[in-house]
Design brief:
CATH topology of one domain: Rossmann fold
Number of strands: 7
Structural class: alpha/beta
Helix content: 25-40%
CATH superfamily of one domain: Vaccinia Virus protein VP39
Number of helices: 10
CATH architecture of one domain: 3-Layer(aba) Sandwich
Oligomer: single chain
Largest sheet: 7 strands, mixed
Length: 271
């Protein structure tokens, strides 16, 4: 039987290939790429240690105690496990949770961090979780079942602007993280029901220049808008991380973002 390559082995091969291909001093862009590669490798090592020491359970934050996955379908796993992932949104999620919501739409749900987390946080709400990836949808269903909320997490594929109209009479929170396609999904001109919906949207100028400004202009007539930027946030460290160096502690919170992707938290104004 052929041994499968380990993550460390694959990293070593990529580093060796990069070094062999150098002709003269490396570029700054090249060094940045290598740094990100090494940092991702180290965060995976830390995530594996967390799983061994603590199991696949979220440590803190709004989703504390949620059973989670050993492999994220997209992005960094360890901040989700620790519970400090996108911590700038935590006070807004908790505030919305007090408003008697009966419905959540999570567009770009991945493996279900928000879909399942909010189903646990909002025991009277139904969560509609959507993703284009079949693997993500399968993982979200598995996660919902593992947390005992499969009956309230409805998993689906593509969500179109007109689909919001079926939810116009609900007390609803919409979460959108679709790597630039937020401009295509959130169209108040095609979806009048959006005017009365609470919205949390990650903006991706990195993929669609002007996305943040465009969405702000679209919803300014109907919503109060708060911009949320990623900021370092204190968190309760698992014991193994307390014993490691400061660099590892910093990497544990790194969410793998290449550039800033601010969130817009939008609350509809009263009529």
């Amino acid at each position: 039987m052929t041994n499968q390559p380990t993550a460390t082995g694959m990293l070593a091969e990529r580093m060796r290939s990069w070094l062999d291909g150098l002709q003269g001093p490396p570029s700054i862009a090249g060094m940045e790429s290598v740094l990100r590669l090494l940092a991702k490798w180290r965060t995976q090592v830390l995530a594996n240690t967390y799983l061994q020491q603590c199991g696949p359970t979220v440590l803190q934050g709004p989703f504390e105690g949620m059973a989670y996955v050993a492999n994220a379908t997209e992005g960094a796993l360890l901040p989700r496990l620790i519970g400090c992932y996108e911590s700038g949104l935590h006070p807004h999620l908790l505030a919305f949770a007090t408003e008697g919501l009966d419905c959540v739409i999570d567009i770009g749900c991945a493996e279900g961090y928000y879909a399942v987390g909010l189903a646990r946080l909002l025991p009277d709400a139904t969560v509609y979780a959507h993703d284009l990836s079949e693997a993500a949808r399968a993982s979200c269903r598995t996660l919902a079942a593992a947390n005992g909320v499969a009956d309230r997490v409805v998993v689906g594929g593509e969500f179109m602007p007109a689909d919001f109209e079926a939810f116009g009479d609900r007390r609803i929170l919409v979460i959108v993280d679709v790597e630039g396609a937020e401009l295509d999904v959130l169209r108040p001109d095609l979806s009048p029901a959006l005017a009365s919906m609470r919205l949390i949207v990650e903006t991706h100028d990195v993929y669609r220049p002007g996305a943040l400004e465009t969405l702000t202009a679209r919803f300014a007539p109907t919503h109060d808008i708060v911009r949320v930027d990623a900021q370092p946030t204190p968190f309760r460290m698992p014991p193994f991380l307390q014993r490691l160096g400061h660099l590892d502690q910093l990497l544990a919170t790194w969410e793998w973002r290449e550039q800033p992707t601010p969130w817009l938290v939008m609350t509809p104004r009263p009529d």
